[in-house]
Amino acid sequence: DGIRDSVASRGLGDVYKRQNIRMPDLTAYIDGQISRFQKELCDFLRIPSISTNPSHAGEVRKCAEWVANHLHAAGIEKSEVIETDGHPIVLGEHRISEDAPTVLVYGHYDVQPSEPDDLWTSPPFEPTVRDGRLFARGSVDDKGQVHMHLKAIEARLASNVDMPVNLKLVIEGEEEVGSKHLGAFLDKNAERLACDAVFISDTGMFSPDLPCITTGLRGIVYTEINVYGPASDLHSGSYGGAVVNPANALATILDGLKDDRGQATVPGYYDSVRPMTERERADLIRLPMDEETLRETVGAVALGGEEGFSALERMWYRPTLDVNGLLSGFTDEGSKTVLPSQAMAKVSMRLVPDQDPDQVVEAFEKRVHELAPEGVTVEVKRFHGGAPWVADTTHPIFDAASKALERGFGAPPAFIREGGSIPIVQVFEDVFDAPALLIGFALPGSNMHAPNEWLDLSVYRKGIEALANLYGGLAAGL
Ligand code: BES
Ligand code: ZN
User: Fold this and answer.
1) Does 233 participate in catalysis according to the annotation?
2) Which of 58, 249, 316, 465 has its CA 20 to 30 A from that of 280?
3) What is 56-94 written as a DSSP string?
4) Could you report the per-residue pLDDT of 13-38, keeping only the tens digit for each?
5) 2, 15 Cβ separation under 8 angstroms
6) Is the distance from the beta carbon of residue 178 to the nearest atom of ligand 1 less than 6 Å?
7) Does residue 49 have its Cβ closer than 6 Å to ligand 1?
8) CA 176–ligand 1 middle distance (angstroms)
9) Does the CB atom of residue 51 touch ligand 1 within 6 A?
10) Dihedral angle computed from the Cα positions of residues 247, 249, 251 and 256, in that order, rounded to the nearest 10 degrees
């Protein structure tokens, strides 16, 4: 218990050294601590750090402090909570030697809202284990994966293998709202945060036995279309037929944004879409992909989308244009004969290299106005955006990481892409002129952003050891 008390403030590695206790090997250390690791992760998951909701700002801050304390507890020398105009950024620094390469670990401690809460089998912020899965909002996106890094670092520092890289950690609280303040922070602190590689676990893997390196992400632009009609709701009998119904007008606009082959009708939308390379096609074909399984996983009657492309191509290599939300008129139970005065749609576009978010949103806005019928007023609001990213896989870090992952998982990693976005990845590469290495642990169907999000606990355990080994393996590629 003496030891346990000191862990809270210093990390077991230091305790071992001070008390002249022989350092355990990595596997033994992780096996000995894994149940404590899981308990800690549950504490992390209990904090509802929902970044989009201003009423949760206090919880977000509390979560930042939790992370900073745990960096320290993992044996990392310095940790700090840094204020921004939005949610705080947590910074960690651990210096091994002047000559060692530096790896910057990035992750996020904020989460998406949990609603609709009634669809959760157990409450979103009361972590619960069922069938080897840990259910909670943030369990896999991204608190669980951040925690795996913290525990991998702790294990490496507390066991008899040395840490061959300097570490910097940037754990932010605004990823789920577009990393609004992180870009400026990186720019301002470029020297302090200088690094040779950026290491990120905020993506997925194909199956529990197939580790994956993500080599591309889609970008995003997120918009809201508002259509205004009559000054107030009207009796749909008295006035119906005499005024333009904004809900109908919105439907016309949305319908016009896609053609019947499933392509966006925004002029120039596909002009800068980079075609797949031979290597990418070969990587894709090799994956154990079955569209019927995908259909079952998502529980749809059929898959669909742009004509002429496979589902993986449509998710990873093609841009999209999708309604994310719709609101207008009477939506309660029963009926009400009313002509709404306004209608709203949230529309997002996932972008691929080399589409430019600013250009796309400009052209989109023009197209929406073009499609708007006479008799209504249309406004387009722009929310967050982010650039797509693709890795240069010829950098030696990919080979080094592949070898280290193969050792941990017993299988060589697959190179995959993801359809999701992490807007800051391209910014990291630009600011630090360093490669980003994305190795994620979310399994298919793990319900990121949805009810009943889960983390596979055997992947959690295996991933911690693989990451701890990777810190060593990466040094060879830097
Ligand atoms: N972890 C995800 C990114 C991701 C999604 C990776 C799906 C792999 C598969 C990340 O937290 C996320 O959700 N990002 C947002 C960014 C947006 C809010 C700017 C996204 O993709 O919607
Ligand atoms: Zn997310």
Assistant:
1) no
2) 465
3) GHHHHHHHHHHHHHHHHHTT-SEEEEE--SSS-EEEEEE
4) 777 877 888 888 999 999 999 999 99
5) no
6) yes
7) no
8) 7
9) no
10) -170
Q: In the prediction, which pLDDT does 5 show?
A: 42
pLDDT at position 7 over 50: no
Helix (H) or strand (E) holding 223, with range, is: strand 219-228
Look at residue 283 and tell me whether its pLDDT is greater than 70: yes
- Spacing, Cα 95 to ligand 1 middle (Å): 31
Using the structure block, give the residue that is written with the tokens 């949103």: 361
* Ligand 2: centre distance to CA 284 (Å): 24
- Pair type for strands 102-108 and 166-172: parallel
- Type of residue at 88: P
The encoded tokens of residue 247 equal 């809900």
* Burial (CB count within 10 angstroms: exposed 0-12, middle 13-18, buried 19+), residue 157: buried
Instruction: Say whether 110 is catalytic.
Output: yes
> Which residue in the list 40, 110, 172, 453 is annotated as catalytic?
110
pLDDT in tens, 405-452: 998 888 999 999 999 999 999 999 999 999 999 999 999 999 999 999
Cβ–ligand 1 contact at 145 (below 6 Å): no
